[in-house]
Write a structure and sequence with these properties.
The protein has helices at about 5-20, 25-65, 70-85, 90-105, 110-120, 130-145, 150-155, 165-180, 180-200, 205-210, 235-240. It has a domain at about 10-160: Alpha Horseshoe (Serine Threonine Protein Phosphatase 5, Tetratricopeptide repeat). The chain has 11 helices and no strands. The two termini are about 55 Å apart.
Length: about 240
């Protein structure tokens, strides 16, 4: 059935088919009706659930800006995050809500609570490699803040997105340095810097860390946002200027 016809028009077409082909076509027609309206119901339900999830997430974001150290408000905020995760598991909104919960608790030094939220976030089946990488990195930071060095390194091992290799390896170096593993820290920092060289993106704090360990990182010439050579004027531009 054409998606451009109204429901009434499609029903009329089905009636004509039954009249033309008789009862033999009735079973097929009924199955088609069930499939069509079942799909429409499922699609509408998905739209409603998505809209509800968006509203829930926006409400959570708004509430996070109004906590001001109010423990009761924070408790309600966390309850709302968990309610969203329960009603819409494995969605980007649920993952982002848990990241926000961890940010709120972590900013107050409640690293165990932040770690719990981030660990929960890593269990969601979200198809977004970037968000997943960010989640593992933040989990490692929360664990590092609690001196859980080996656990933090294990979390970093889950970061495989190339866009986050530099951040992953710099944090790995920080953890290893706190473990008094200078050789391991140097290797991790060098790996992080190599990733930055490929991206032509310098990072001053990492350079300072490497210098402190006696390392001299390769200079990175970042691409200029303005072209060095003049661009030839096209015929269209000549016409616009005349």
């Amino acid at each position: 059935m054409s998606e451009y016809l109204s429901d009434e028009e499609q029903i009329e077409r089905l009636k004509k088919l039954i009249k033309t082909y008789g009862g033999a076509a009735l079973t097929g027609v009924l199955l088609a009706l069930i499939a069509f309206f079942g799909w429409r119901y499922w699609q509408n339900r998905q739209d409603v659930e998505r809209f509800q999830a968006i509203n829930q997430y926006q409400s959570i974001v708004d509430d996070s800006a109004k906590l001001d150290g109010d423990k009761a408000a924070q408790s309600r905020f966390i309850s709302n995050v968990q309610a969203l995760v329960k009603s819409d598991p494995n969605s980007v909104f649920s993952l982002q809500a848990l990241l926000l919960q961890a940010k709120v608790t972590g900013s107050q030094g409640e690293w165990a609570s932040a770690e719990k939220a981030l660990a929960q976030a890593t269990t969601l089946k979200v198809k977004d490699d970037g968000l997943i990488a960010i989640t593992w990195i933040r989990l490692a930071r929360a664990q590092f803040a609690q001196n859980k060095f080996d656990v933090a390194i294990a979390s970093l091992n889950n970061v495989t997105d190339p866009a986050f290799v530099a951040t992953r390896d710099e944090l790995r170096g920080d953890v290893l340095l706190q473990k008094n593993d200078q050789a391991g820290a140097k290797k991790a920092y060098e790996s992080a810097w190599a990733a930055l060289v490929k991206r032509q993106q310098s990072r001053e704090l990492l350079k300072v860390k490497m210098n402190a360990l006696g390392l001299t990182p390769e200079e990175i010439k970042e691409p200029s946002p303005i072209r060095d050579t003049p661009v030839e004027t096209t015929n269209i531009e000549n016409g616009a200027a005349s």
